[in-house]
Amino acid sequence: MTWLRQCRAVVRRDFLTDIRYPISFAFGFFDAVIALISYSFLAGVFGSSRPDGFEPLPFLLIGIALTDSVTTTLVTMALGVRNSQQAGTMKALLALPLAPARLMILSMAYPLMRGTFDFVVFSIAAFALGVGLTHANLPAVVLVFLLALVSALVIGLGSASFALVFKRGDPVLWAIGTATWLLSGVIYPTSVLSPWLRGLSRLLPTTHALAALRVAVIDGGAWAAIGPDVWALLAFDVIGIPLGLWLFTTAVTQARRSGTLGHL
Amino acid sequence: MALTGANGTGKTTALDVLATLLLPTGGDAIVCGASVRQSPVAVRRHVAYCPAGGTSFWPRLTGRENLTCFAELAGLGDDEVRRRFDQAVARVGLDDSVLAREVRTYSDGQAQRLNLARALMRDASVWLLDEPTRSLDAAAQTATWVLIRDAARHRDVSVLVATHDAAGVAEYADSVVRLS
Hints:
The structure holds two protein chains of two kinds.
Chain A lengths: L1 H18 L2 H24 L10 H32 L1 H6 L5 H8 L1 H20 L9 H29 L3 H14 L11 H7 L3 H14 L4 H36 L6
Helix pairs in contact in A: 2-3, 3-6, 3-7, 3-8, 3-10, 5-11, 7-8, 7-10, 7-11, 10-11
Chain B lengths: L1 E3 L6 H8 L11 E2 L2 E2 L4 H7 E4 L12 H11 L4 H15 L3 H4 L8 H14 L4 E5 L7 H18 L2 E5 L3 H5 L5 E3 L2
Parallel strand pairs in B: 1-6, 1-7, 4-5, 5-6
Antiparallel strand pairs in B: 2-3
Helix pairs in contact in B: 3-4, 3-6, 4-6, 6-7
């Protein structure tokens, strides 16, 4: 029960903070609408070509929907720590009888919900634009989507740890964000990349998530077809979450040692 | 007990070590039988910490939302949060109209009182208060010292205060340690 109450407290805090910046909240939604319209036009440019054998519109919409959800999750998670430092609440939080790892696990709840909300909005919009979802393997979609969001939390943990020690999390966010857009097959298939770039792209969880999600949504995704990508995501998450929590705990210890816990 | 002394003498450092926010470079500190090095979470169960100034709150949340969130994160149940909230805000003199406002609109004095209310809501046996009268006028300083003394006696807790107000605190503290 204590876990649930604490989780509820963190979710309520993050939600209220989010909606009390209404312009930022509205622009996030507006950005998503603009992206959807742009990508539906872009799908027309593909003509009769079929990226990775898929229809262009669903290919693009799944790319943008998943990437947007993953980015929202990652940024919400990473900025949470940065905002706590700026507001001066970091010291007050870490003076509570909570282990830093527990605090970070609790802090994952709202970013997960925000990412899921974005994905649901995109899915409804995709359906409205004529993308058929009747063939989708729903259990596979849910599984791949959740694994993708958890992988975003892993990167968010890395970014938050960086922010705690070096006070700026932007390099991690920038590097992962750029690599994701460039290499993971968001708007073009990874097959167009050179072999060594394709090798690099296999290191990014979003590459596996997009590949599996497209098969699961458009082709009805047999488990055998998406298996390798699901295993890759699972491995990233299973190794990444404890590693990320350890990294954050180490970052807190380092900040405690140097006396910079409350510094910006 | 009050810690006084000029800037840089280690008042905040001492409080931060006892709150487990800073690791000592040597030795150890024991709070209610728990070591700040070996068992920081156990130490924090006994300690309520008020950072200097009133800026350690989420600015876009109201005073009520801030206090509730910190209390729930500290592990208090719903009924306990409600009960202690009512008691704490009554003791520090924050009324509903203030508590319903976002903290970013608070004056320094209101933020300081919210800071104290947060400590009062915790089931702690030690309070660590860093500059609780900073930015307050003379009358508000006196009121704050009285409030801390009375609340501490009422709840039977030990209070360690870091302050520049050596003259003001002397009247209310059992002992004053001057760091140099």
